Amino acid sequence: MSDSGKFESVEKRVSYGIGRQMAEQLMSNPFDGLSADAVAEGLTDMMAGRDSQVSEENLHQAFKVISERMQAKQAEEAKAAAGEGEAFLADNAKRDGVVTLASGLQYEVINEGSGDKPSASSTVRTHYHGTLINGSVFDSSYDRGEPAEFPVNGVIAGWTEALQMMPVGSKWRLYVPHQLAYGERGAGAAIAPFSTLVFDVELLDIVS
């Protein structure tokens, strides 16, 4: 795509780029009814030193209303995600070979190793592949082509519990309810709040 002739100077190009960066930030967490025209007016008035066209009181009230709407929407989405995870685990528990622990963690053995089992204070080397219940991959040491090392007690609770039951050489599939994963906060853009996670975990070695 060729450049528009409107931005012939470096100053205008950078100014345009700043506008796009601001828009990207706004669109990363938008609300229903977000108006690009109103954003542009606010930006123009501020940079020109003009008084606000909306009083501080009305701005504060409007921000409060939109914040409450967004929180309510997020709560509904989180409730739906939690329900989907619970339904998935309930169905999964009925499958042959799936073990459900008192904590709610589920696992099935793909390969059973014969080595030692790590303790909570151990550091282990693993290969793993993590997905959401819809199959979307959010992290994979296999894809990176390099195993990961970490302390057993330094990962999510579902992993900490499972690893201490796995002999070295084992490969298990873990089904981790949200309360044993990233809970109500989620993790970045890939893992939403209240997400149930699925991991293939291969315990390669106990490092220390």
From TrEMBL:
InterPro entries: PPIase_dom_sf (IPR046357), PPIase_FKBP_dom (IPR001179), PPIase_FKBP_N (IPR000774), PPIase_FKBP_N_sf (IPR036944). It comes from the Bacteria. GO terms for biological process: protein folding. One of its GO terms (molecular function) is peptidyl-prolyl cis-trans isomerase activity. Pfam families: FKBP_C, FKBP_N. Residues 121-207 form the PPIase FKBP-type domain. It catalyses: [protein]-peptidylproline (omega=180) = [protein]-peptidylproline (omega=0). Transmembrane segments: none annotated. Its EC number is 5.2.1.8. Keywords: Isomerase, Rotamase, Signal. Belongs to the FKBP-type PPIase family. This is Peptidyl-prolyl cis-trans isomerase. It comes from Simiduia aestuariiviva.
